[in-house]
Design a protein that fits this description.
By secondary structure, the protein is of the alpha/beta class. It is 47% helix and 16% strand. It has one domain: 5'-nuclease (Rossmann fold, 3-Layer(aba) Sandwich), CATH 3.40.50.
Amino acid sequence: MTPSRVKVPAGTAARVLVDTGVLVALFDRLDKHHDAACTWMASTHAALITVPSVLCETALFLPPRLRAELAGLAARGVLQVHTPDATGHARMATLFDEYRDCDPDWADLELVWLAETTGAQHIATLNVADFSVYRIHGRKRFELALLG
């Protein structure tokens, strides 16, 4: 089965989840997806939402001089950061159990939780393999926002 793939058009009022790879590509000029990430970020008018673990993962891949710019995206509201509460962490525990054979990482399942919480279905990610497997509420496929 192929995942649902859509390019979120400029002017779309939808919320888009943003994953680590897209943010790394945005800041890393040597990343092969850098130009596409910059073009996508400049053209989307959707609300961009993410989770703290995505920011942490991204920071690990960025040189120290760029980490302030990443924090600035959140500070200016370009990226809206949502943090799970106890109920959110309980849902993530269930997701870790459900996807244990996939060896999911924390940030991915935190994004699944965010999708379930906000109703967002679009995700800007380079991690197509995993987000083709994960489901929102166990049923709904993610709509992958393409960068090119």
